[in-house]
Write a structure and sequence with these properties.
The structure is a single chain. The protein is an alpha/beta fold. The strands form 3 sheets. Strands 6-4-1-10-11-12-13-14-15 form a 9-stranded mixed β-sheet, with helices on both faces. It starts with a strand and ends in an 8-residue tail after the last helix.
Length: 318
């Protein structure tokens, strides 16, 4: 039996944010959180009791130790993380409220993960899992990261390990054309695909009804589990060629980052139980929870998730 339920490869970031009432240009202090799409998803899964591990590069010294401590606190195994002399990437966040848009500034060039090569990866550790979870962020970071992600997907498929992939397009990292050229060959190795409607339009040039978009994604990806996320409108998938839609859960927004990663965690949690649609429903709740909490990595529990799935009313838990 595999040691882990889900293992991910991706970058960790030091997220430095100011309150919604403040501006980056006049900031007097920053709140520090660890972030990163793959680690965010694992943190939510670990909160639900799943066995999770994370591979990456982290800097030597105090910042690397700080990141490892944050991951350990979230319940994530970091036994195969590679330490090197490079840096920890930064993300500066102005978590604004309307009418101001949320502002994100990256300072992540030459971070520790970009210095890794395939020979640095403990492949036995990475593949000792039911699911390998990857995103479209990592291959955009460097040529070596791109090659590691491809090799991870190929090795996993070759050993019968499920490959999960969240497109997660970032326009500040690469162009739509560059993303399409890199990701379309990768999708051939993917079993579970999560793609936003905006990413489908930007990267793969497809738009229209959810059914039409899902049909196009099926042509790119041989996986049996394809989920289209539609923001506030929820998410859709095809089950036996029937369109299934799961609505989003309303939430009082405190922090906008991390909701998509929490949704991906729900999808994987349901997949591990053999029910993708149930996973999408769990993801809708987890995504809403992420919006109500500071920081990218959410804290929850299986009991809280089940209670919220069963009860849509806000109440006082006495």
């Amino acid at each position: 039996m595999p040691r882990f339920d889900v293992t991910a490869f991706g970058e960790a970031l030091l997220r430095l944010s100011v309150p919604a009432s403040a501006r980056l240009q006049t900031a007097a202090r920053f709140d520090a959180h660890l972030g990163g799409a793959e680690a965010n998803a694992l943190a939510a899964l670990a909160s639900l009791g799943r066995r999770c591990s994370w591979l990456s590069g982290l800097p030597e010294g105090d910042l690397g130790r700080w990141a490892l401590r944050a991951l350990a606190t979230a319940g994530i195994d970091t036994g195969a993380v590679v330490r090197n002399p490079a840096r920890l990437g930064n993300l500066f966040l102005e978590n604004a409220v309307a009418p101001r848009p949320v502002k994100v500034i990256y300072d992540r060039a030459d971070s520790a993960i970009t210095q890794l090569t395939a020979s640095d990866i403990d492949w036995n550790f990475l593949l000792d899992t039911h699911v390998v979870h990857l995103t479209g962020i990592t291959p955009a970071l460097s040529d070596s990261c791109h090659q590691i992600v491809i090799e991870a997907a190929e090795r996993a498929r070759g050993q019968g390990v499920t490959v999960s992939f969240d497109v997660n397009y970032r326009s500040k990292l690469w162009s739509p054309e560059g993303a399409a050229a890199a990701l379309e060959p990768l999708l051939e190795h993917v079993d579970i695909l999560i793609c936003g409607a905006a990413d489908a339009r930007s990267v793969f040039g497809v738009e229209g009804t959810p059914r039409a978009i899902l049909g196009h994604l099926q042509q790119l990806c041989p996986g049996d589990h394809i989920v289209l996320t539609q923001g506030a409108e929820g998410a859709s998938t095809l089950v036996a060629d029937e369109l299934v839609h799961v609505p989003a859960r309303p939430a009082e927004v405190v922090d906008r980052l991390g909701a998509g990663d929490a949704f991906a965690a729900g999808v994987l949690d349901g997949f591990l139980d053999g029910d993708l649609v149930a996973g999408m429903q769990r993801g809708a709740v987890l995504g809403a929870l992420a919006l109500t909490q500071d920081g990218d990595m959410i804290a929850t529990s299986r009991r809280e998730l089940n209670d919220l799935l069963a009860d849509t009313e806000t109440r006082v838990d006495r």
